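Hey all, quick one. A colleague (J.T.) asked me to put the guanosine-5'-diphosphate job into the tracker so the inputs and the structure tokens live in one place instead of scattered across chat threads. No bug as far as I know, just bookkeeping. Sequence used:
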Amino acid sequence: HTAPPTMAMNGHFASVGDAPTKEQYEHGIQVIDEEKVFNPHVNTYLQLTKVAQAGFDYHLISVFGSQSTGKSTLLNHLFGTQFGVMSENERRQTTKGIWMSRNKRDDGKAPDAERMANNILVMDVEGTDGRERGEDQDFERKSALFALATSEVLIVNIWEHQVGLYQGANMGLLKTVFEVNLQLFLKDKQSNPRSLLFFVIRDHIGNTPLVNLRNTLLADLTNIWSSLSKPKGLEKSKIEDYFDFAFSTLPHKILQPEKFVAEVEKLGTRFRRGQRAARQHGLHTDHELEGGIFLDEYHRRIPADGFSKYAEDVWGSIVANKDLDLPTQQELLAQFRCDEITREVLEAFDVEILPLEEKQAEGTRSGKPTVLANLGSLGKGARVKTVKAFETEASRYHKGVYVRKRVELESKIDVRLKALYAGQLTAAHKAGVASFSGSVASAVKAGQKKGASYEFADIVEREKAIALKQFETEAKSLAIEGVPWSNFKSQYNLYEKELDEVSGRLRKEEMRRLATRVERWVRSRLGESIGLEFNKLGSGRGAGGVPEDAVKPPTEKDLWDRIWNVFTSTVKEAETRFVERAKSFDASQDEIDIGLWRLRRKSWGVLRAKVDEEVMEGNILLKLRENFEDKFRYDEAGVPRIWRPTDDIEGLYTKAKDSTLTLIPLLSRFRLAETYGPPDLPDWIGVVPASVDPKDEEDLTPIGGVDEEEGKSLEEEMTILSEAKRQDLVVRFKKTADGVYVEAKRSAIGGVAQ
Ligand code: GDP
Ligand code: MG
């Protein structure tokens, strides 16, 4: 027969921590040893036997009964287990503590109706008549409690001749079971799981039919129940509130070995899942069971992967003589397991998410934020997978705990994804803004190259739409359905705002470019027209004595009026061009006002520089000389004079010289003829626009009388020649005029001499 378990296995789990091998579990596993220590390897055993993965698809059976009544023998025959049995010639207790083994019977080929349920775990509980343990009833109570807290079916093994012996030892055991049951469910009135008491009557001779044995037993059980002193609140409870009953007989194993085997075989077919056919009043017995004996309502609803932890905690409470509170026990188990499962699924989540987080962190560190490819689908995928994996394992546990832990898990995941997505959008934001301004700039450049007029506003609008679309696509790809934080509207708005700021800046640059172009135009225009006005000075009667001017010679007196008019009308034209263009790219009125203000100031500067150039020593001296010569050497009709000695050379010289000399004070100051004062430059330039940016003023040259804080008056601004320069000019001019006079004089005498 089967060998008893070796001492190593029967010992005190000396090898705690060493993972046991499958071979060590030939005889099942000793869940609780005779020292009441719970074996830490139960879960390993469940893993090795593949029960741990079964969810709820497993069943737990315990066997009870007096010592040496063939319990282990029965289990070994029924389930192919190898629990230790007593050898025939040695009456000694063999099963110590509580052993457990998975059903080893291979009935895969049997018809469905005879095939046993999946994953049956059988617990062989130490003989309970206390022979070897003296009068110590403690272990009996404790193991009964443990079995009841875990098992769906309790097999009660009993000799036929014990039936009806109400005072028998076996009945004492049942009394314990009932008492313990009442204690157990004191705290658990709502769930109140039922158990099946399955009486297997051994050595059935056959004289007494099973029906009679059943009736006798039921009567005894009812008696025992009513004799129990019940705890408060449960005084009225009935045995059938907690138990169903099933009965079976087996022939004598030694006397009728073949019949015994055949009957055991038949008995085995009852260990299938079944359902209650009808509810009757009175005790519920196997008459009502259809199919097998495993009803769903017997199941303790402990997921297989949490069974060892649950069993250990239950046993811990029992040993510590604490009240067993199964609902609390189940909640604690749920918390423990849900936390474990959370850790497991987060590990898998890490494998997918950590590399992405690292890549992103590196981009941030190096100052080049990376837009990670496919982040949305990767993140969503990892989230769904992780939550699903959690759900699969954890949803079998206490509903409330599961729901709470699921929310916790989701928020753990979301904290990570949120950070990752925020980084992603920051990167997308930066990249988008850079590419937007780059695209606008190169489109502008391309437009300038073609020389054609490009529409800045159109370019900005087009590039902004592209940039927004890109960002939106990224943000949408990150959105998770039903997750409010994954709506990135505010980030999108922020992005759009920055694009607008950037386009504002770009428009400003464009305005600058426009301003530069317009200024250049003003400069070239003024260069010509102002030059022309000064050239007219050269001729006292029109440039080179041209007849058209001769008719109505320009009076030098209105030189500045003409300059001012040319200047203001040129600038007016430039302003019109500027406004037209600026409007085409959506510049604001403020921006336009600033641009115009700048344009006027700069134009004034251009004019001022041009005038300075014209009155530069050499230039102005030349002009004065020309002016003088025109008056001196030409007659009223514009005909060159041939000097004769009789001519009043001196008188003509003095007249012409004095006339030209009047130009010097005229040239010295920018004065309008009408008012005999400077033009109202401050009014013409206008007040500083309110919205002007200090930066806009940086490159502006101060203007006297306009920028008062500069300490330069308008009078000074309008001073073209300083007093010293003027005097110097007078002296130089006189010398030049004198030279011309001397020459004239000489030619007159010379003419006579010839
Ligand atoms: P346990 O202590 O209840 O587990 O009993 P065991 O299975 O170890 O068996 C105790 C003794 O009873 C052994 O010597 C078995 O050979 C014997 N035995 C086993 N089955 C039967 C049976 O059906 N009838 C009788 N009379 N003896 C049996
Ligand atoms: Mg035994």
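Adding what we noticed when we looked at it: Residues 68 and 344 are 45 Å apart (CA to CA). Confidence is low (pLDDT under 50) at residues 1-17, 542-553.
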